[in-house]
Amino acid sequence: MNTTTDPKQPPRRMLYATMGALLAVLLLGAGGFMWLTGGAGGGGNAIGIGGPFTLEDGSGKPVTDRDFRGKYMLVYFGYTFCPDVCPTTLSAVADAMDKLGPDAARIRPLFVTVDPRRDTPAVVKKFTAAFGPEITGLTGTPDQIARVAKEYRVYYAEHRTGPGPNDYSMDHSSVLYLMDPQGSFLAPVRADGTGDEIAASLKKLMG
Questions:
Q1: What confidence tens digit (pLDDT) does each residue in 67-101 have?
Q2: For residues 83 and 77, is the Cβ–Cβ distance under 8 A?
Q3: Total domains in the fold of the chain
Q4: What range defines the domain where residue 96 resides?
Q5: pLDDT tens, position by position, 141-168
Q6: What is the pTM of this model?
Q7: Residue 1, in any domain of the structure
Q8: Which of 6, 80, 99, 122 has its C-alpha lying 20 to 30 A from 160's C-alpha?
Q9: What angle (nearest 5°) sits at the alpha carbon of residue 10, between those of residues 8 and 16?
Q10: Is residue 194 a part of any domain in this protein?
């Protein structure tokens, strides 16, 4: 994410971290409404978060949302060139998986890139492997990424930093999405939490 500072404006990484936190709060409120109205019970998705996708894993193998049925999906959108927020979040997720013990087997953390131009399957595989084998990295064509980002209500945009083809960073929202074993949205999880906090939230949400 962009780290350019301006004395008249807050750093962009702080801006989009704040946007992600605000989105999480809004989703929590919407999720509460969904639970109260029974929207999550019958396989429906009352607030329209998530949906079917076809992407590629680190080996270039096609992967769909249905491959994770029977497991909770913990979905995070970011990119491998992200200098701070994404590595911090994935490190906390990996720590949370360790803290969960046997319950970790019920969850599949997914990292979906919003920078498919640079994040090839090999790049995504190497990036996620640095945090542990539990996290699956996914990429795809620009159109595939745009579709899945739209399904998850994810904001992302290229921010040019120079004239070269790779002189850019990606602004993006930062939220962990917990999907239930049937693939429906269950709740957002704060992406800026510690491993202990994320583990506690997941344990409570999974029951």
A1: 999 999 999 999 999 999 999 999 999 999 999 99
A2: no
A3: 1
A4: 12-39+51-206
A5: 999 999 999 999 999 999 999 999 999 9
A6: 0.80
A7: no
A8: 122
A9: 145
A10: yes
